[in-house]
UniProtKB/TrEMBL annotation:
This is Ferritin. Residues 25-175 form the Ferritin-like diiron domain. GO terms for biological process: intracellular iron ion homeostasis; iron ion transport. Its EC number is 1.16.3.1. Fe cation binds at residue 42. It is an enzyme of class 1 (oxidoreductase). InterPro entries: Ferritin, Ferritin-like, Ferritin-like_diiron, Ferritin-like_SF, Ferritin_DPS_dom.
């Protein structure tokens, strides 16, 4: 398997993508598969967040949480498309980028409902893709790819994980009677932060 050393990488031409220097040398085969899979997962996660936004907004009437999930969907969709650009700049083949079996609707299969369940589901989705990013980063000896993963994906998913964990802790700390009030107050905070994005989902 061909691997690009750090010395070889220094000789490669570079380009800028969102302020990050991108090596124009091609990656090794293992890294190609990692990046393709990550692009798939980012786009799939964006779709899953929209499903969560629809459920929490329409079924539970929480516009703040719906707007949060819509914002997370926008973020992951954008990062997925930027990753496709990165793959193209690295001269990687993307003919098999999209999975033939399509996107699995994991949210639709949920048996439980409610804000806590949806936040826990989002946390698990984010945790899974964060683990995939970390694996790609650790297995790579490609300095350009490692830098891209750190600045565009790793930090983002760490912050999303912290946000979701914080929201869950706030809602679950009180009694059952208090949880409804806490959930309402958190929803109002999210609505003030992100605005009412339900029209972006239901329009």
């Amino acid at each position: 398997m061909h691997r690009i050393s750090f010395e070889t990488e220094k000789k490669c031409k570079t380009n800028l993508l969102l302020g990050t220097k991108v090596s124009l040398c091609s990656c090794n085969d293992k890294m190609k598969e990692c990046l393709r899979e990550l692009a798939n997962q980012e786009i799939e996660l964006a779709y899953e967040y929209l499903q969560l936004a629809s459920k929490v907004g329409a079924q539970n009437a929480y516009p703040g949480f719906a707007s949060l999930f819509t914002k997370l969907s926008d973020d992951d969709s954008s990062r997925g498309h930027e990753l496709v650009k990165y793959i193209a700049l690295r001269k990687l083949s993307i003919n098999s980028l999209i999975k033939k079996e399509g996107i699995k609707n994991r949210v639709h299969a949920l048996r439980e409902t409610g804000v806590v369940k949806y936040l826990e589901t989002a946390r698990e989705f984010n945790k899974k893709i964060l683990q995939a990013v970390e694996t790609c980063h650790e297995d790579s000896n490609d300095a350009s790819a490692q830098d891209y993963l750190e600045s565009h994906l790793l930090d983002h998913h760490i912050e999303v994980g912290k946000l979701l964990e914080d929201l869950l802790n706030r809602i679950k700390t009180g009694s059952d009677a208090d949880n409804a009030l806490i959930t309402y107050m958190v929803d109002e905070e999210l609505l003030n932060t992100y605005g009412d994005r339900r029209k972006d989902v239901f329009a």
